[in-house]
Amino acid sequence: MSARALAAVLGLLFLIVSMGGAHAAVEVRVEGVDEEAERNIRAFLQIVRLSADDDVRADRVRRAHRRAPEQIREALEPLGYYRPQVDSELKREEDRWLATYTVDPGDLLRFTEIDVRLTGEGVDDGAFRQAVDNLAIGEGDRVHHGRYEQAKRDLQSLAVRRGYFDARWEMRRLLVDPAAGRAEVALHMDTGPRYRYGAIAFEQDILDDDFLRRYLRFAEGDPYDRRDLLDLQFMLGDSDYFDAVDVVADRDGADTKRVPVRVQTEPRARDRYTWGIGWGTDTGARTRVGWERRRVNRQGHGFEVEGELAEVRRRFGVAYTIPLGRPDRERLILDARFRREEFGDGLSRTNEVGARRVRSYSRWQLTEGVLFERSRDTLGDFRETRQIIVPHLGLEQRQRDDAVYPSRAYRFNIDLRGSTRELASDVNFAQIRIGASWVRKILPRTRILTRGEWGASAVGEVGRLPLSQRFFTGGDATVRGFSYQSLGPRNEDGDVIGGRYLTTASIELERLVVGNWGAAIFTDAGNVANERRMSLEQSAGVGARWRSPVGMLRVDVAQSLTTDDSPRLHLSLGVDL
Q1: How many Å separate Cα 295 from the centre of its chain?
Q2: Which of 79, 112, 226, 358 is the most buried (most CB within 10 A)?
């Protein structure tokens, strides 16, 4: 056999030996570093990528293992470790390779100098001064390449957001000298001039431009800030006039440092119709219909008609809405309603005409209004017609992280109202009503829900108050274990007639068990009385839950703890707040 042939045979045998029977899985262990460093090391290590394969050739494993120490050093430098020591070990254990890397990261290098300089109009911009003060890196901080890159992005993003479209870097560098223990950053930016708003055009034909311009919080010639455009887009999107809104700054069309703004819109359907049916233990069977005209005219006025038919009440109402000075925050609502509703053991037929101004302040909503009410109440054989003119003031704050199934939510509301014979009313009274609800996720798929309500009326004789202005409680949404509005003072015939003072409270623990199905345990307490000191009726119970697309379906069985009544079934569907 020739020497060349012998070499070929030996090479083939070596290849067979190195490949045959040497395939195995790879396990990689990294020791001696914190979680962030280990993540970065694993992202750099080639041998980690081999571990995803259950059958790797031995030569590939050994080659990746030899490269690992250098890759680990490269992975640690962006985190401030420039002189690590790496001990590596590769062992074959049955059907797997075990690669272990024990790392001593060494001393942490820190920034010794941060030199940030601005020139141009941005020097006098408070937003830039604040950004420099809150930069992601500072002298004495650990060297971290990611935070250095973040500092650059923050300054660049701020320049774009604030309208410094010609901003450029005069210097941006990170110099590291591990031997001398120095790390210096230089970020020098020339912001250039700040652009201003040019002409503002609304691309739509359903509303007057003068009306839409009342949504603007900036004007032509004001300094550019992208947040203004986002705020305008959100306000118009929430206005119910448009299906889509896109506020575009035309930087390509900027002339003499002026940026034209175009508001592109797609109108929403002018009319909306609603219809629904349901059943609940409080209301019995019910149906509801509604018609809303979102735009009555080009000034953004709206009109709504709504009707409800249930076993315990019938309602029909119309409302006319007029946007005021700031349409996104202030509106006037004129409405008229007819109600036929059971209160306790009484029946009230009420005609109402009212006007109210609704204003929004950050998370608060303030309602100021006046209501004319003429009611005809029936309680046993007693019938009386009354009229009152009621000024009222309401304040509400609501926050939730999800409209249908919140994990963090709360609501607080207070209502003040009253009337006097000086206003041509049949009774003098003053009333306060305060309510609060709170929802919090405490464990995965587990929430705690609490609510409470308190009310008080100052009136000479509670029997002079219309039924619609008295307090009643009991039922699905107040004190379960008792029928709808069955708690409170009674007359000589045993009829529930409502009272001056109201107190309710509830706490519930709810858990989703399988999918959208869950269970709950709860306890409720409350009552209505004509004296401030009252004994509270209490109940406890269990319930089944189904998280539907429109809110939680609740099927509860509650037992009174203070009476001998039988357990009661309660069924309700709706959102938590």
Answers
A1: 29
A2: 79
What angle separates helix 58-76 from helix 3-19, to the nearest 10 degrees? 70
Spatial separation of the C-alpha atoms in residues 560 and 204, rounded to whole Å: 60
Question: How is residue 317 written in tokens?
Answer: 């109402």
- How far apart (Å, rounded) are the C-alpha atoms in residues 202 and 235? 14
H or E, element range at 211: helix 209-212
Which homologous superfamily is 19-104 in? membrane protein fhac (3.10.20.310)
Q: Which CATH superfamily is domain 196-267 in?
A: membrane protein fhac (3.10.20.310)
Query: CATH 2.40.160.50 residue ranges in the chain?
Result: 322-331+359-365+375-574
Q: Return d(Cα 379, Cα 347) in angstroms, integer.
A: 6
Residues of each domain in the chain carrying CATH 3.10.20.310: 19-104, 113-190, 196-267
- Assign 254 a pLDDT band (cuts: 50, 70, 90): confident
Instruction: Give per-residue pLDDT as tens, 152-174.
Output: 999 999 999 999 999 999 999 99
Interatomic CA distance for residues 310 and 283, integer angstroms: 6
pLDDT tens, residue by residue, 469-497:
999 999 999 999 999 999 999 998 899 99
Alpha helices in 3-88 (DSSP H): 3-19, 35-44, 46-50, 58-76
Residues 296-308 as b or e (16 or more Cβ within 10 Å = b): eeeebbbbbebeb
Residue 437's nearest CA partner among 486, 481, 400 is: 400
Contact 501, 532 (CB under 8 A): yes
Q: What's the average model confidence in pLDDT over 400-425?
A: 94
Backbone angles phi, psi at 471, to 5 degrees: -95, 140
Residue 167: beta bridge partners? none
C-alpha to C-alpha distance for 525 and 507, rounded to whole angstroms: 9
Average of pLDDT values for 205-209? 96
Query: Of 433, 491, 430, 489, which is closest to residue 459 (Cα–Cα)?
Result: 430
pLDDT at 51: 78
Task: Report pLDDT digits (tens) over 51-68.
Answer: 777 777 888 999 999 999
The CATH code of the domain at 113-190 is 3.10.20.310
What are 392's two structure tokens?
């009222």
- The pLDDT assigned to 2 comes to 52
| Token pair for 69 | 């120490």
Q: What integer pLDDT is reported at residue 10 of this predicted model?
A: 39
pTM of the prediction? 0.81
Angle value at C-alpha 288, between 285 and 293, nearest 5 degrees: 180
For 506-530, write each residue's pLDDT tens digit. Answer: 999 999 999 999 999 999 999 999 9
Cα 376 off chain centre by: 43
Q: What class, spelled out in words, does domain 322-331+359-365+375-574 have in CATH?
A: mainly beta
Contacts of 197 (CB under 8 A, 6+ apart): 218, 219, 220, 221, 222, 223, 224, 258, 259, 261
Once rounded to an integer, what is the mean pLDDT over residues 101-120? 95
Whether residue 70 has pLDDT greater than 80: yes
Q: Averaged over 235-263, what is the pLDDT? A: 92
Residue 518 tokens, joined:
């869950």
